[in-house]
C-alpha cells in the first residue's frame, strides 16, 4: 500500500510534531528504482525529510544526519 501523497505525523525526541506529505517511497527490501537513483535498500522505519521538516522540528542536521523520530 503506497503512502505517496498522504500526510504523516513526525515526532522528534524533543516532543515537537510536524505533518509532512510523503512524496516518494523506496522498497526497504529491494532498494529503489531509477527515479530514486537505484539507492540501496533502506532500513525499516526510516524516513528522509526536507530541510524544512528539520527546521520545524528544531533538529540540527539534514542531509545524511540520523535523528530519532517516530511517525504515523
From TrEMBL:
Subcellular locations according to the entry: Secreted
Domain of life: Eukaryota
A cellular component annotation (GO) from this entry: extracellular region
Keywords: Secreted, Signal
Coarse class of the protein's main subcellular location: secreted
Pfam families to which the protein is assigned, alphabetical: KWL1 (PF24300)
SUPFAM superfamilies, A to Z: Barwin-like endoglucanases (SSF50685)
Family in the record: Belongs to the kiwellin family.
Name of the featured protein: Barwin-like endoglucanase
Species: Corchorus capsularis
